[in-house]
Amino acid sequence: MTVQLVPTKAGNTDTALRRNGCLAALSPETLAHLKPYLKRQDVLEGTILWDPEQPSSDVYFPATGVIAIGVPLREGSNVESASVGPEGAAGAFLEAENEQALTRGVVQIGGDFYRISAAHLSGLPNREILALQTFCKDWILLQAQQRAACNAVHTAEQRLARWLLQNLERANGTELRATQELIADALGIRRTTVTLIAQSFQAKGHIQYRRGTISAPDPQRLAKLSCECHAGLSKGHWLSQRLASFSGRGPAHRREA
Amino acid sequence: MKRYFFHLKKGHETIIDPRGETFASKQDAYDHGVAVIQELMRYRELASRSWQLEICDEDRCVQCRLLFASYDPALEKVPPQVRRTVEIVSHSRASLSDTIAALNRSLLEVKATLARANNMPFLATYEGQRVEQ
Q: Which residues in chain A touch residue B127, judged by CB atoms under 8 angstroms apart?
């Protein structure tokens, strides 16, 4: 069942908008054009943003929180093929035009999202918006390819470490609010398996798990337990970094300025 | 519906399942345990054959202890005799690990007792539990 999003009263200041890496990477002129159409909303874990039966006409930019993109299967499971956090955007423009939508977008970690109608976004056909759409599709494809390989050869322990690292990085490396059920769904394994691995990580001091909040005192230790797939999806490869370089707002350009 | 707990014995280490899951029957709990074993041992079959999953009921009484080697899909195609031999070796290795773990715990308890006899402070934990003096 699709859950209604709740609009919040907070304003769209540039600082607030720039918590999303893609919006932060856009030039001030492009952002100023989009600003009137961007609606800020609090979204709760489990909210279905789109699915094959109810395709979305909107694009979502998470400022905090994560969207899991999966393919819903007949028996009710929704196998996750990619996820998008504050480093990206997801929604209407991910599906091929004039084709039946295949994916379902579910809020995996609740937070503040910015929503804009795809019509408003594509109504501004400048090169940055076109690059944004291309990079978002590339980001989903990259993750889907990486996950297919990861699921085929890596252990549950390595995959859990990879998932934690990826999502801790999205939360600026501090704390992550996630239940073991949520992680089990994301990885397609049983909750008991997640509990046993998480208990082992906690006993060795790799993570601290308290009332649904996970933190990693030393992410480098967790990285040693993860498969190499994490490196390919780490911050340096985020689509927001690519978009920033494209827009001339990357770290190298800022240094020059 | 009854709650069952799934504790993992991995070498000298025991990982406790503090939450457990509810099931309508013991058979359902067993099936869940086998599925958890298959998820944990996938792509590390050789290293995990001597691990065990202990299924306990609500009173924390052990209902069964499942040896990973017995559910290793890599052994399905080998002759039954070879499979049996691998299971016996894995079981012996698991028993040895249990014995070493019990020995380590006993040593800590002896140290704690000696410290108490000498009126010395002693603080140690074993698998997350404080070793009592």
A: 203
DSSP string spanning chain B? -EEEEEEEEETTEEE--SS-EEESSHHHHHHHHHHHHHHHHTT-HHHHTT-EEEEE-TT--EEEEEEGGGG-GGGTTS-HHHHHHHHHHHHHHHHHHHHHHHHHHHHHHHHHHHHHHTT-----EETTEEPP-
For residues A110 and A65, is the Cβ–Cβ distance under 8 A?
yes
Closest-CA residue of chain B to A188: B39
**Does residue B46 belong to the interface with chain A, where contact is any CB pair within 8 Å?**
no
Q: Measured between CB atoms, does A151 come within 8 Å of chain B? A: no
Are the beta carbons of B39 and A193 separated by less than 8 Å?
A: yes
Confidence of residue B85 (pLDDT cuts 50, 70, 90): very high
Nearest to B36 among A155, A190, A203 (CB): A190
> What single DSSP character describes residue A4?
P
pLDDT digits (tens, 9 = 90+) for A205-217: 999 988 788 999 8
pTM of the model: 0.84
Q: Which of B15, B18, B42 sits opposite A156 (nearest CB)?
A: B42
Nearest CA of chain B to the CA of A205: how many Å? Answer: 12
φ, ψ (nearest 5 deg) of residue A181: -65, -45
Phi, psi of A136 (to 5 degrees): -65, -45
- What ipTM does this complex have? 0.85
Is there a contact between B15 and A190 if contact means CB atoms under 8 Å apart? no
Distance from C-alpha of A248 to C-alpha of A131, rounded to nearest angstrom: 13
For chain B, the domains span: 2-130
